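Try this one yourself first.
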């Protein structure tokens, strides 16, 4: 609120100067002020990190959870699952390592279905009823690939495309779910078949927000570090953000003002350590397990990382800038 008042005050001074200099007519200035008041809710937060989470979802928005490196049955995973369910998300997406330790069929239901069966369709496991429609969208990690062809993972889920990488839309968000493992038959380099698919599908997307998810982090300050092979031209191709896992930490990194997230605290018992922060690292956290909560509308998308105790560690919002589009027409 204080930031908005400060903005109004600053704009008022600017408009007074503009009027004094005869830059605008009184009618144009009045229309300008009305537009500014209408668009104040879209003002970009003066800082990306806030002290509290968004407690209420706007009616026109969707809310979803992102979990990573979670598939190891036990208290940490159970706690994160309960946290996620308390948000009542529209759906859940993962950034891989869904089934520790080796992606075996013998462990997959206990590691995934035990906690998330009511989001999965079709669900054929033993922990209760599944969802009526699928609301669980995973990607494979290296531990899912430790069994040949990631076959238990591919058998457990009914996924689109080739079941290794695919896309789906939940308006206003278009999701591009990649397979970043070295075993991926279509490759993981920036010139691979998979990368070409991503570039073409991003170019064809008409969604307001375009999120790329993969397991291995293109950028990370933690144990595994940055994966240069996966530093594709995401921003140039039209992505809004990239979310990864692999390192069992949380980190937000900005590269040329483009956000990369590492979200690997979903429940595997071992939490990793950080080395020296890489260039662009904004927030680093490794003290407890948690998940990301994302709220998206046609006007904004907000990413939060929240611990299993409900503590908001990071909040980052991207807003749509509408004013420059409509101001010239309004001031005619």
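Now uncover the answer:
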């Amino acid at each position: 609120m204080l930031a908005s008042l400060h903005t109004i005050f600053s704009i008022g001074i600017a408009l007074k100067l503009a009027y004094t200099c005869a830059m605008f007519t009184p009618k144009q200035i009045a229309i300008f002020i009305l537009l500014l008041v209408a668009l104040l809710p879209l003002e970009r937060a003066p800082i990306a990190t806030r002290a509290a989470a968004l407690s209420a979802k706007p009616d026109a928005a969707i809310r979803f959870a992102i979990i990573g490196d979670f598939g190891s049955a036990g208290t940490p995973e159970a706690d994160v699952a309960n946290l996620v369910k308390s948000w009542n998300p529209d759906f859940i997406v993962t950034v891989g390592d869904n089934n520790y330790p080796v992606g075996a069929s013998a462990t997959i239901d206990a590691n995934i279905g035990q906690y998330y069966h009511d989001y999965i369709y079709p669900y054929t496991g033993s922990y209760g009823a599944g969802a009526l429609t699928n609301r669980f969208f995973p990607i494979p990690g290296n531990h899912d690939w430790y069994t040949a062809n990631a076959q238990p993972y591919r058998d457990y889920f009914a996924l689109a495309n080739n079941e290794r990488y695919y896309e789906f839309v939940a308006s206003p968000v278009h999701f591009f779910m990649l397979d970043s493992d070295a075993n991926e038959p279509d490759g993981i380099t920036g010139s691979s078949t998979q990368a070409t698919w991503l570039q073409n599908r991003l170019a064809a997307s008409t969604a307001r927000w375009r999120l790329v998810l993969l397991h291995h982090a293109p950028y990370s300050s933690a144990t595994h570090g940055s994966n240069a092979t996966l530093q594709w031209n995401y921003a140039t191709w039209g992505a809004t953000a990239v979310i990864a896992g692999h390192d069992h930490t949380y980190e937000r990194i900005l590269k040329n003002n483009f956000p990369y997230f590492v979200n690997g605290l979903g429940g595997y018992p071992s939490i990793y350590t950080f080395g020296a922060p890489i260039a662009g690292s904004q927030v680093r956290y490794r003290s407890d397990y948690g998940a990301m909560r994302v709220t998206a509308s046609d006007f904004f998308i907000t990413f939060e990382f929240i611990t299993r105790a409900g503590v908001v560690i990071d909040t980052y919002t991207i807003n749509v800038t509408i004013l420059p589009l409509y101001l010239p027409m309004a001031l005619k």
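Discussion: The two ends are 31 Å apart (CA to CA). DSSP finds eight helices and 13 strands in the chain.
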